[in-house]
Design a protein that fits this description.
The chain has 356 residues and is an all-alpha fold. The chain is 78% helix and 0% strand. The chain contains 14 helices and no strands. The chain has helices at 9-47, 55-63, 69-104, 116-130, 140-163, 170-194, 197-208, 216-235, 237-243, 247-252, 257-279, 285-297, 301-325, 334-355. The two termini are 42 Å apart. It is found in: Cell membrane. It is a multi-pass membrane protein. Belongs to the binding-protein-dependent transport system permease family. FecCD subfamily. The chain crosses the membrane at residues 28-53, 73-96, 108-133, 139-160, 172-195, 215-234, 265-288, 334-351.
């Protein structure tokens, strides 16, 4: 008879390391695949428009300073800021969404469902309709974004303030955010009711969301905020991963849950508010992107954070391509496209999860 194989602690540890190494490599391959898809749609976004160019023409113009002037102007001054904004805004909204879902322990948490986008829309409407602005008239290009940002952050601080009241659970925080959505939507509709036609059209266009407002300066601001906030979240990756095990277990591991939750809500709100203040309301990216990333790489924040950023960038870049392809000769507001695509995609994710 063959003697039974006795597993030693050393062998068990080595086997565990081998399995984890395989899992990590699989996750890295998935991240690489999403990155490749994102780059493909980024090039498509640069290629499609009123004038169509091939991918080779786009790449040659980006690398060759001697390319024809008209093509260089179209790509560098018009399309490239918009295409890069799609990547940055998509990544920002998705990162904000995944961290809000993590610290609140609620799969429905996102900048949109917590009322931040609705608050930003109301802030923009205050400037567009009533002329209320915190910046002087000389800074007209940033007056509306500043209004949107301040009202959105005020809503985030209000949610945080109420979250410290005794007996408030994470589920109640999400319900409070939903209440803010209806409140700011009602206030926005009241302003629209009394608005003149020109201001009304400007508000409606702003609330639809559009990447056409992107400029190199705004892109730089959004990119800097995304890099800074992502770095902070990356340094808290272990604590955020442990928080998904439950608040009690995270506390037993020495994690300051209350401080971590405050940091996640405020930084996620900052990230979303900056983007929404520049490009308008864009829904579903902050809700759907994290769920797709979580299905692909799991809950480990070391992989979930970059996966969420890549999924958000990919989704918004693909939406940007669709916005220029659905109606010949026109570019639809990207907020409409994300909502139309996001609803069936979110239903698909829910049904797929229920089958497990």
């Amino acid at each position: 008879m063959t003697a039974p194989v006795i597993s030693t602690p050393t062998a068990t540890l080595a086997h565990g390391r081998h399995l984890y190494g395989r899992l990590a490599r699989r996750r890295l391959v998935i991240l690489g695949g999403i990155a490749v898809l994102t780059v493909i749609f980024f090039i498509l976004d640069l290629s499609i428009g009123q004038a169509h160019y091939s991918a080779l023409e786009v790449l040659s113009v980006l690398w060759d300073s001697d390319a024809p002037l008209p093509i260089r102007v179209i790509l560098w001054e018009i399309r490239l800021p918009v295409a890069l904004a799609a990547l940055v805004v998509g990544a920002s909204l998705s990162v904000a969404g995944v961290e809000m879902q993590t610290v609140l322990g609620n799969p429905l948490a996102s900048p949109f469902t917590l009322g931040l986008s609705a608050a930003a829309s109301f802030g923009a409407a205050l400037g567009l309709i009533l002329g209320v602005s915190v910046l002087p008239a000389s800074a007209v290009a940033f007056a509306i974004p500043a209004n949107a940002f301040l009202v959105s952050m005020a809503a985030a601080l209000f949610i945080h303030r109420l979250s410290h009241r005794r007996g408030i659970t994470t589920e109640m925080i999400v319900l409070l955010g939903t209440t803010l959505v209806f409140t700011f939507t009602a206030l926005l509709e009241a302003l629209q009711y009394v608005a003149p036609d020109q201001a009304l059209s400007a508000v409606v266009f702003w609330t639809m969301g559009s990447l056409s407002r992107a400029s190199w300066l705004k892109l730089g601001i959004m990119s800097a905020v995304l890099a800074a906030v992502s770095l902070i979240f990356a340094r808290q990756a272990w604590a955020l991963t442990a928080l998904r095990l439950g608040e009690a277990r995270a506390t037993s591991l020495g994690i300051p849950v209350a401080r971590l939750r405050l940091q996640g809500i405020l930084l996620g709100s900052l990230l979303a508010s900056v983007c929404v203040s520049f490009v308008g309301t864009i829904g579903f990216i902050g809700l759907v992107g994290p769920h797709i990333a979580r299905m692909l790489v799991g809950e480990d924040q070391r992989f979930l954070l970059p996966a969420s950023a890549l999924c958000g960038a990919f989704l918004l870049s693909a939406a940007s391509v669709l916005s220029k392809s659905l109606v010949a000769g026109q570019t639809l507001p990207i907020g409409i496209v994300t909502s139309l695509v996001g609803v069936p995609l979110f239903f698909t994710l829910i049904l797929r999860r229920n089958k497990r």
